[in-house]
Design brief:
Elements (H helix, E strand, L loop, with lengths): L1 H37 L32 E6 L6 H7 L5 H9 L4 H4 L6 E6 L5 E8 L2 E8 L2 E8 L3 E10 L4 H8 L3 H11 L14 E11 L2 E15 L2 E11 L2 E5 L19 E4 L2 E5 L6 E4 L2 E4 L5 E3 L4 E8 L5 E7 L3 E11 L8 E2 L4 E5 L9 E8 L2 E3 L18 H26 L1
Antiparallel strand pairs: 1-2, 2-3, 3-4, 4-5, 6-7, 7-8, 8-9, 9-10, 11-14, 12-13, 14-21, 15-20, 16-17, 16-19, 17-18, 18-20, 18-21, 21-22
Length: 435
């Protein structure tokens, strides 16, 4: 009996302890449930919102007064230019200035229109000439407008060359990026000429592409008169880097080379137009919009405004320049012995374009038009080998011109090093701004 009573007491005590531990465990659990149960019904006082309007003192924007310069442009003289066409490209709408340039004896230097030279002009918002600068040798021709009209003067100047450098990123177009960076169109066009053997500037450019350029600036009394030659450049297109350095291997003879000495000059450019769009490609069967029947399209059509300049894609000799059937106005160039290129539907030809004339790669040979069987202004471009049509977009480019010889490479490296150091500085500055 005594043993039975002790066992019963032990069991009772054990049960009491278990209930106590169970109660301790249950307390936080119920507490958690209570917490979740109370949160949704928590009272939140409304937040008072006050609208505050403050006056901001903005600077007064004054309209340009007569004679103030609103736009500054620079253009290179092209073969076939007239004084009127040059002023039109500079966006100058000023009959008085045109009359002065045509009649003034002091303006004779500009009337000669030497291809390749640059003209820099500033205009107001209405296109009236404010000033114009044209450097011919060591003579500076200046036109300036004052209350008495447009005045012309010539003066001998001491030219000062400075090395300038810029960097830009493409957001909409190459010219938009160059304008944003403060580069003239002349420098942008040199970039196109330098890299057009590797980059198709109609189809290959992408938003985010970027370029850095080192170039000459020609100054007179601290004023930039014109831009000179591009000395070095890097163009990053679709994350692929292309680099070029100008090297003069003999007196007045030079070209652009990669850092390992390869010649950037290709025998044929990728496109005869600087900027355009492809409207029709090479095809063995295409429905002709005018003839209303299926026939082969033996070239590539580039859509562009009437008057757009057409370039020779390679050195050659004019084999034909005139009107020919459905081609309309057409130029045919012969390159070496078995290559020919055809440029059709032209609105006009460059000056002195005739059979037997030699032309250089990139030289202007005509202007986009809609002559012949054409529904609108465009360039029809053909590439033939032994008179057999080839697709210009798929044709494997003939190898580039010869590279630098081993004896010239050390001198080239000495020339390239300081220029590429400047380009590296431009890139580091840009990275610092991003960081």
């Amino acid at each position: 009996m005594i043993l039975a009573q002790k066992l019963a007491i032990s069991i009772l005590n054990l049960a009491i302890r278990h209930r106590f531990f169970a109660a301790l465990i249950a307390v936080p659990c119920f507490g958690i449930v209570a917490a979740f149960g109370v949160a949704p019904s928590t009272f939140v006082e409304p937040v008072q919102i006050n609208n505050v309007v403050e006056a901001i003192n903005l600077p007064t924007v004054l309209p340009l007064s007569e004679g103030d310069s609103a736009f500054i442009r620079e253009e290179r003289i092209q073969r076939g230019d007239t004084v009127a066409s040059l002023l039109a490209r500079l966006n100058i709408d000023d009959p008085d200035a045109l009359q002065v340039l045509r009649n003034s004896p002091q303006a004779r230097a500009l009337r000669q229109l030497v291809p390749g030279r640059s003209v820099r002009a500033s205009t107001d918002t209405d296109g009236k000439l404010v000033s114009l600068r044209y450097l011919s040798g060591d003579t500076l021709l200046s036109l300036d407008r004052d209350s008495s009209g447009v005045n012309v003067k010539q003066e001998k100047v001491q030219q000062e060359k400075r090395i300038l450098m810029k960097s830009a990123q493409i957001r909409s177009s190459l010219f938009g990026a160059s304008d944003e960076a403060g580069l003239s169109d002349a420098v942008a066009m040199q970039l196109v000429d330098i890299f057009s053997g590797d980059i198709d500037f109609q189809r290959d450019l992408r938003k985010g592409d970027r370029f850095s350029v080192v170039y000459e600036g020609i100054y007179n009394r601290g004023e930039l008169v014109k831009t000179g030659r591009v000395l070095a450049a890097e163009f990053v297109n679709q994350n692929k880097s292309y680099q070029a350095v100008y090297f003069e291997y003999a007196e007045n003879q030079g070209g652009y080379y990669t850092l390992d000495g390869k010649n950037l000059r290709k025998q044929f450019l990728k496109s005869p137009l600087e900027f355009s769009r492809i409207t029709s490609g090479f095809s063995t069967g295409r429905f002709h919009p005018i003839l209303q029947k299926w026939r082969a399209h033996t070239g590539v059509d580039y859509g562009a405004p009437t008057g757009t300049r057409v370039k020779a894609t390679a050195d050659g000799i004019v084999d034909f320049a005139g009107r020919q059937g459905g081609y309309g106005n057409v130029v045919v160039l012969r390159h070496q012995s078995n290559y020919t290129t055809w440029y059709g539907h032209l609105s006009g030809f460059a000056k002195n374009m005739r059979k037997g004339q030699r032309v250089s790669q990139g030289e202007i040979i005509g202007f986009v038009g809609a002559t012949g069987l054409a529904t609108g202004p465009h360039l029809h471009y053909e590439f033939r080998i032994n008179n057999a049509h080839q697709d210009p977009l798929r044709f494997a480019m003939i190898p580039a011109a010869p590279p630098l010889t081993p004896d010239l490479k050390p001198r080239f490296d000495q020339t390239a090093e300081p220029y590429m150091h400047r380009i590296a500085l431009l890139q580091s500055f840009k990275s610092a701004r991003i960081d």
